[in-house]
Amino acid sequence: MHFVVTPPVTPSIAVVGESARFPIHRIYCVGRNYEEHAKEMGHSGREAPFFFMKPADASLVAEAGQPVSMPYPSLTNNLHHEVELVVAIGKGGKNIAAAQAHQHIYGYAVGLDMTRRDLQSEMKKQGRPWCIGKGFDFSAPVGPITPAAQVPAIHSGAIALQVNGQDRQRSTIAKLIWNVAETIEQLSRAWTLQPGDLIFTGTPEGVGAVVRGDILLACVEGLEPLHVQLV
Ligand code: MN
Predict the structure, then answer these.
(1) Which of 82, 123, 168, 179 holds its CA 20 to 30 A away from the CA of 111?
(2) Cβ pair 114, 207 in contact under 8 A
């Protein structure tokens, strides 16, 4: 096959205990999936799940044990952190029942749904798409994937984010409004899931701004931590 321009490289993530890597197909994100975060954003805390996407090449992949540098994005004065559990899909499908969802999960990683909050708020106000607030370059830092079998207790694990050593977000995966299986059920009604898809499952309360020079440490109990330095 010959192409008229160079085809893009498939972005990929390291897998704990494997030399082979996980290729990124799509990045789905769940909005307002922890009650206290929904409240801090001015909502009731309980509603049907809704989804948005980031481009696969908006990922910023951190290798095991290494910090990754994120360039402070253009057009914003209010860049927010959102620490999230990321689900990596290993087997595709549509209309997946929650009870079968575990068969489709390859593993889990820690991610940051970085958000140009000022642009997102303006787009919301005008009833326009969020893309410019959510889907910008380097907006999806993500750490190494741990295969699901190695983290059976992930659904009750702690989730936390520190900025420069200070706690900003701290909760538990058990507080997801729509758990991982229910999220896969709902998401797969709207799109056909494919191997390589990532799902950012939502952030707990405590989102806030970061600036150049800040060091972010994102953790989910049982997974490789994610270190990001804003430059
Ligand atoms: Mn989010």
Answers:
(1) 123
(2) no
| Dist. CA 83 → ligand 1 center (Å) | 7
Distance of CA 143 to the CA centre of its chain: 10
Alpha-carbon span 66 to 175, nearest angstrom:
29
- Is residue 63 within 8 Å of residue 14, measured between CB atoms? yes
Cα(173) to ligand 1 centroid in Å equals: 14
Q: How far does residue 213's CA lie from ligand 1's centre (Å)?
A: 22
Q: What is the distance between the terminal CA atoms of the chain, rounded to a whole angstrom?
A: 39
All structural domains of the chain, each given as residue ranges with its CATH number in brackets, are 12-230 (3.90.850.10)
Q: In this structure, are residues 167 and 208 in contact, taking their beta carbons and an 8 Å threshold?
A: no
pTM exceeding 0.85: yes
Tens digit of pLDDT at every position of the chain (231 positions): 899 999 999 999 999 999 999 999 999 999 999 988 888 888 876 788 899 999 999 999 999 999 999 999 999 999 999 999 999 999 999 999 999 999 999 999 999 999 999 999 999 999 999 999 999 999 999 999 999 999 999 999 999 999 999 999 999 999 999 999 999 999 999 999 999 999 999 999 999 999 999 999 999 999 999 999 999
Q: From ligand 1's centre to the CA of 231, what distance in Å?
A: 22
Cα distance between residue 98 and residue 181, in whole Å: 5
